[in-house]
């Protein structure tokens, strides 16, 4: 995908497009080495709220690289997240996508909304104190890891429906286990459409998610999972960060309404994120394709 945001094309056609690109492209050794330096587009296209730098600790593994995130709070631990380097899609990725009826957007990169969600959580750490939290569709799991590292949440479960993504989440949990203090942290394979809801035995006070509302085929399943989790604990709340992205957020919110859930949308929810947004709108050059509808995450709060 070339733009800074997922498109609304059908997941199956997107998968074939990416697969075709992956198969046609044969990186030379030199290109592979350069690839290690480019984990995701986030390094050049994002809000730059949580500074990160590459840690080159995979000299024999050209598929992955690790970035070190410096949480902008005094005495906060650094976090290490292993991610795919750009352009290293593999045939097995698409076999797994087909087998599990899921896309590979979680492997493509860490999307900018995830950083905004992570930043919002660290700036609002009080709301997580002693709470049990689940992140849905977490990708590499930055927000869940930040919540575990800087808030006093009792438990953080970082979930995704793509088993390969869940492997990365578990690796990232293991790599940062010393940063979590007394907070219990787990990964979970949770597909919004396929999981028997009765398999979710835990209860959660807070549900967080970023950039999970553009898959129209999963809107209903996602709304049902949110409803199921909210009904288990009262009061509970879901915090979604999502760009509007055409009509995709509105369509998801229609499903939320049909599920008899309430929601509110806030555009300006953090002074720093709003400042970065305005700088990007004024063309500061750090994210050339930036435009509000596809890139700026709105804060959506959902409750019973
Ligand atoms: C656009 S990515 C966002 C990832 C991460 N939150 C971020 O912003 O970087 C969407 C994530 O949702 C996951 N996902 C997509 N469809 C899903 C489904 N039906 N059930 C569970 N997870 C799903 C993908 O595997 C992917 O990790």
TrEMBL record:
Subcellular location: Cytoplasm; Nucleus
GO molecular function, one term: calmodulin-lysine N-methyltransferase activity
Enzyme Commission number(s): 2.1.1.60
Alphabetical keyword list: Cytoplasm, Methyltransferase, Nucleus, Transferase
Enzyme class at the top of the EC tree: transferase
InterPro entries: CaM-Lys-N-MeTrfase (IPR025800), Methyltransf_16 (IPR019410), SAM-dependent_MTases_sf (IPR029063)
One GO CC term on file: nucleus
Location, primary (coarse class): cytoplasm
GO biological process assignments: methylation
Superkingdom: Eukaryota
Pfam families the record matches: Methyltransf_16
Protein's name in the database: Calmodulin-lysine N-methyltransferase
